[in-house]
Amino acid sequence: xxxxxxxxxxxxxxxxxxxxxxxxxxxxxxxxxxxxxxxxxxxxxxxxxxxxxxxxxxxxxxxxxxxxxxxxxxxxxxxxxxxxxxxxxxxxxxxxxxxxxxxxxxxxxxxxxxxxxxxxxxxxxxxxxxxxxxxxxxxxxxxxxxxxxxxxxxxxxxxxxxxxxxxxxxxxxxxxxxxxxxxxxxxxxxxxxxxxxxxxxxxxxxxxxxxxxxxxxxxxxxxxxxxxxxxx
Length: 232
Hints:
Strand order of the largest sheet: 1-2
Strand content: under 5%
């Protein structure tokens, strides 16, 4: 894995806190920083090549977002996501992404419609070729395109915050037998609904897609728990 916590580019720009925040957030979401790991301001500042102030401010932002939490006598640590939190995140995602799909169906241009269909075709080829890394990139591009075509920057920002949490969930859910093929079919159905300008149908497909993703995640999650119990 690339070292996400590499030094921030040296400059005097006023958004240094934002750069530090995005670096730390990426490290938390990617697993470079593990659950319960302490977020020591001094060490992080040294690693990022910045003062402790932007690190402290970034950690506070991460605590508000729920990615970090303050433990008395210990300091800030990476928050552990329990099943209740995961369920809540999926529920929020279904509503936000459903709205984005409905708006995209009303506003998308022909060029972007063609790109959605093209992505679906390449995703299906990736499944046949077992190219999971490329599939993840295409999955991200497909949904990012839908968000952009909704033409609602505030909605896109809210979705971005939520989607960051579920990237690892999606990866785990894809390990569920048959889920990759099912998800590819759902993306194809969504592209068709958007192409037909059927906003309500597009929203329903997205909600079902998120629900199926949630179900696949928890099936794999509990299967992994059971396997770990048998190993101990």
